[in-house]
Write a structure and sequence with these properties.
single chain, 77 residues, alpha+beta, Alpha-Beta Plaits, two-stranded antiparallel ribbon, 2 helices, globular, binds iron/sulfur cluster
């Protein structure tokens, strides 16, 4: 396993495809978690660290992605 890939992360990202513009920002910030091919999809929930995933989600220009830790919503607050 690559040392760049965290073994298990706490945050789960949920994309609202109906809001997504396909801009690619989330993939640019967290390239192992998100895949954008017209619309963003989750490639691997554990592909990037929690910090990288949260940064990617906060970079989405239309707020199309939520972050959950268990049943607690982390973003948007
Ligand atoms: S940053 Fe937001 S709008 Fe852009 S591709 Fe990702 S989910 Fe879609």
């Amino acid at each position: 396993m690559s040392k760049d890939k965290p073994e298990k992360t706490k945050y789960r990202v949920v994309i609202d495809g109906s809001k997504c513009l396909g801009c690619g920002t989330c993939e640019a910030v967290a390239d192992k978690t998100f895949r954008v091919d017209g619309v963003a999809e989750v490639a691997d929930q554990d592909g990037n660290s929690d910090e990288e995933k949260l940064l990617a989600v906060q970079s989405c220009p239309v707020g199309a992605i939520e972050v959950w830790e268990g049943d607690k919503k982390v973003w948007p607050r």
